Amino acid sequence: MIRVEKLVKRFGDVTAVDDISFEVRRGEIFAFLGPNGAGKTTTIKMLTTLLQPTSGSLELDGLNPTVNRDEVRKRFGVVFQDPSLDQDLTAWENMEIHGVLYGMLRKERRERATTLLQLFELYERRDALVKTFSGGMRRRLEIARGLLHTPKVLFLDEPTLGLDPQSRNQMWTHVKTLNETDQVTVFLTTHYMDEADRVAHRIAVIDHGRIVAIGSSAELKKQTNTQSLEAAFLALTGTSIRDESANAADSMRQIARMWRK
Amino acid sequence: MLSVIFILWLREVKKYLRSRTQIIASLGSPIMYLGVLGFGLGPIFRKAGEGSYLQFMAPGVVGMTILFTSMFSGIALLWDRQFGFLKETLVAPVPRLWIMIGRTLGGATVAILQGSLIFVASFIAGFRPLSVVVIPLALLFMALIAVVFAALGTVIGSSLKDMQGFQLVMNFLVMPIFFLSGALYPLTNLPRVLALLTRIDPLTYGVDGMRTVLTGVTHFGLTADAIVLVAVAITLLTVGAWRFSKIEI
């Protein structure tokens, strides 16, 4: 479903993604694990047509995201690390706009929105403004919205960041169900090892822009001779803490946090 | 295509109509200008033989309201692309041009609504247009001002990298555009440098156009005002569309 070959992305003299290659199979849940600044989000941005790669090739459902941009966009849904809902609109309105943007007909759009909101347990609150929603509800709404146009691939970039264990658990249950019933391929990134361990069929560990290991959770443990995925992860990426230099987005993220409190 | 532009436009308008407190808050400063300057400078303006100051400045304050509101909606792009809805639209299978048009028209509409509220407020304060017939024409000029500055806001919002630039733009662009527009003082007999600066400020032509239509007092003449505004609007919309297409997240 996704094929990445010798992908490189440089920002000035910083190499964010350094010659990575991997494949994600149809119907698979594939996790990208890595410390901060490893290149996870940059890879997602390139796959979702928001960034142009410096070199290498990309393929999503047989199409090239840098060439057949709009065709590729119809085939994936995405939940970004930062929220992208309109908080001053209702859940239903957010779904409606998404449907119109993806050229869905009214009837089809409303039926599917109803189904998805029911599935994600948001239907009762469909006419409430998103700003009255909890963090977990917002995330669920974003996933429901991302699935509205029946994409073949769903990208989730640290979707559980800042959620309590209950919400995380509930969210993954939904994602797993969808993956099994609709055969949606899921590409996710996370910091939480237990999540990757639980939901992902295969895991790629990425560090300093390079893939250091790839395989199922069991394979990774075996390869590193460890008992848990967390231990395997540390064995692969080392224990040193990554000091990321703050960029413009980070400083804005900080202001956003201050404002929300 | 139209449905996409329409829904993005509708989104801006809906959000505006829902934010009652924001509407009231943003009416504060124009009403201050109207009330305090309008009545405070009134006597001296009359003494100088220029007639009613309120009558003179009301179109300027309406122009100011539109300037602030539309510029702000454009610059809000900066915030929106990182933490808001913009990213959702940028991965959608629609050309960025439509997104930019929908957004800009929405921002402009909100600015026109806001300007209309101030127009009503100035009417209550005692401003009287020549006749009711001229009001649609005044609305046309309000729309031109709104589009010009919503487009300028889009250019800036697409080009800035972080929030620090925002203050810079407010202090070195938006405020000068307002103060140099002849909203608060007549453009005749100005020192040469000031006269030159007022002439390169697009708001000058907007305010002059509204003033001409509403009160019959003109500086450049209606046709000149309209031509300049349309030309500037087209230029800024083109640059805005180009900058918007270059946004990387």
Q: What tags apply to this protein structure?
A:
heterodimer; A: 261 residues; alpha/beta; six-stranded mixed β-sheet; globular; B: 249 residues; mainly alpha; 12 helices; 79% helix
Report on the architecture of this protein.
- The complex is a heterodimer of chains A (261) and B (249).
- Chain A has 261 residues and is α/β, with parallel strands linked by helices.
- Helices cover 41% and strands 23% of the residues of chain A.
- Chain A is built from ten helices and nine strands.
- In chain A, strands 5-6-7-3-8-9 form a six-stranded mixed sheet, with helices on both faces. In chain A, strands 2-1-4 form a three-stranded antiparallel sheet, covered by helices on one side.
- Chain A is globular, with a radius of gyration of 18 Å.
- Chain A starts with a strand and ends with a helix.
- Chain B has 249 residues and is an all-alpha fold.
- Helices cover 79% and strands 0% of the residues of chain B.
- In chain B, helix 1 packs parallel to helix 7 (96-125) and helix 7 (96-125) packs antiparallel against helix 12.
- Classes of the chains: A alpha/beta (261), B mainly alpha (249).
- The A-B interface holds A 45, 48-51, 69-71, 73-74, 78, 80, 82-86, 88-89, 93, 96-98, 100-103, 145, 248-249, 251-253, 255-256 and B 3-4, 7-8, 11, 14-15, 18-19, 79, 82-94, 161-163, 248-249.
- The secondary-structure class of chain B comes to mainly alpha
Structural class of chain A: alpha/beta
Strand and helix order of chain B: HHHHHHHHHHHH
How many DSSP H or I helices of chain A? 10
pLDDT < 50 stretches of chain A = none
The description of the largest β-sheet of chain B is: none
Terminal Cα separation of chain B, in Å? 24 Å
Major β-sheet annotation of chain A:
6 strands, mixed
**Fraction of residues in H or I helices of chain B:** over 70%
The neighbouring-strand order within the major sheet of chain A is 5-6-7-3-8-9
Report mean pLDDT of chain B, rounded to a whole number. 90
β-strand percent of chain A reads 15-25%
Shape of chain A: globular
Q: How much helicity do the residues of chain A have? A: 40-55%
User: Can you write the helix and strand succession of chain A as a string?
Assistant: EEEHEHEHHHEHEHEEHHH
Largest binding interface between chains: A-B, 35 and 28 residues
Oligomer classification: heterodimer
